[in-house]
Amino acid sequence: MNFDLNEDQRLLLQLVRDFARNEIGPKIADYESRHAFPTEIVRRMAELGFLGMTVPAEYGGTRTDYLTLIIALEELSRVSPTVCLITSVHASLFCNSILDFGTTEQKKKYLPPAARGEILGAFALTEPGAGSDATGLKTRAVRSGSEYILNGTKAWVSTGSEADALIIIAKTGGEAESAKLSAFIVEKDFPGFRVARIEEKMGLHSSVTAEISLEDCRVPAENLLGGEGRGAAVALHGLDGSRIGIAAQAVGLSQQALELAVRYAKQREAFGKKISEFQAIQVMIADIATLAEASRLLTYKAANYYDRGLSYSKEAAMAKLFATEAANKIAYLALQIHGGYGYSKEYEIERLYRDARVMTIYEGTSEIQRLVIARNLMKET
Ligand SMILES: Cc1cc2nc3c(=O)[nH]c(=O)nc-3n(C[C@H](O)[C@H](O)[C@H](O)COP(=O)(O)OP(=O)(O)OC[C@H]3O[C@@H](n4cnc5c(N)ncnc54)[C@H](O)[C@@H]3O)c2cc1C
Q: Distance between CA 284 and CA 336 in Å, rounded?
């Protein structure tokens, strides 16, 4: 498997790297400290075509192969895991789900404005009482003439309060066991849609995470995505792809932590020497670099399988599991190298340590990734 970047990928990588350093870097700390959504940054990303990277040209997008998207997400995450998450949810979970499951009308209606960044997308599966176990969802969608009426509460929706349209998973059909999951494209202006509250989180402060209340929310029947009873397929397929994006988010954060740790070790002195001269510090740096590189290779491999049209569910879960667990170890070690200063908000590593923590939880916890990997292995052998 060859991961040498081609000319197009190198150009895009440089474009995203320059944008992240010059336009996200100087502003993001202020947004994070205010827990404010980085609207201005997202608008600039739209202008540069970064929000349309999963949307084909016929729908006005700048669709690239998946590896290129992953490299772009990694670069964004080096400077801001928050901006990376906003982009990944929009491009992978929202746009890709419509592209893969939508009718021609749905694609024509939602993809061009999504590619231009005129509408921002989100994805709402989790509820207060059900996260890993989607069979426990309580949100119901009942058909009434030309509409579905949705009732329920969606929790932990990334970009939830800022999104113009969301893919919402709800139960349709009979009561209890016979009910099936279905997916809907819900616009924020549909009657009965309400942002109920904003979560106060440990990290990723600018990625505004919302609880959404649906009270007799009226959704046109033509906004059913993928057909009635196909919600589990929409969600699982979307998550398989976007997990590679979360792995890339972890790789970007890990790379940044490595660079911060090396830079700090080369300037800090103790016992009359630079701390980079101590073998104990060198061992930590070697472990960080090795974990980061292994994470990157697993992530690129999953993207490569995606691009080649191979089954990639197991590879995506392995990449997400390894890269997000590694990012937490890496952030811990890199902070350790910073000593007491690592615990100060004045040093970037403090934010990386907090931002890394959620990565082993959202889009399927590490425990769920292990189940996905094991299930795939049982099927294969
Ligand atoms: C910042 C943030 C952003 C998020 N963004 C979104 C979003 O945009 N859209 C969305 O739909 N959701 C989102 N989520 C929700 C996230 O996907 C869930 O939190 C996650 O899937 C876990 O669900 P839970 O919190 O209900 O935990 P639970 O499912 O209650 O799990 C609790 C613990 O039990 C373990 N566990 C559960 N089942 C098993 C099992 N079968 N075997 C072994 N262990 C198990 C879990 O691994 C975990 O350790 C977000 C969450 C956070 C924190």
A: 9
DSSP 153: E
Q: What is the rounded distance in angstroms from the CA atom of residue 52 to the CA atom of residue 163?
A: 15
Nearest ligand 1 atom to the CA of 158 is 8
d(CA 131, CA 243): 16
Q: Where are the beta strands (DSSP E) in 191-230?
A: 193-198, 209-220, 224-225
* pLDDT, average across residues 134-147: 95
- CB–CB of 200/136 below 8 Å? no
- The helix (run of H) or strand (run of E) holding residue 124 is strand 121-124
Identify whether 363 is a catalytic site residue: yes
Residue of 365, 371, 375 to test ligand 1 pocket, by largest number of atoms within 8 Å of CB: 365
Q: Which atom from ligand 1 is nearest to the alpha carbon of 204?
A: 1
What CA–CA distance (Å, rounded) separates 346 from 361?
Answer: 27
Q: Whose CA is nearest to atom 4 of ligand 1?
A: 156
Q: What is the pLDDT of residue 41?
A: 97
Helix (H) or strand (E) holding 185: strand 180-187
Residue 146 half-sphere exposure toward CB, CA atoms < 13 A: 2
Distance CA(192)–CA(69), nearest Å, equals: 35
Residues 222-277 pLDDT 10s: 999 999 999 999 999 999 999 999 999 999 999 999 999 999 999 999 999 999 99
Give which of 114, 314, 226, 232 is closest to 306, Cα–Cα: 314
Cα–Cα dist 205/199, whole Å: 10
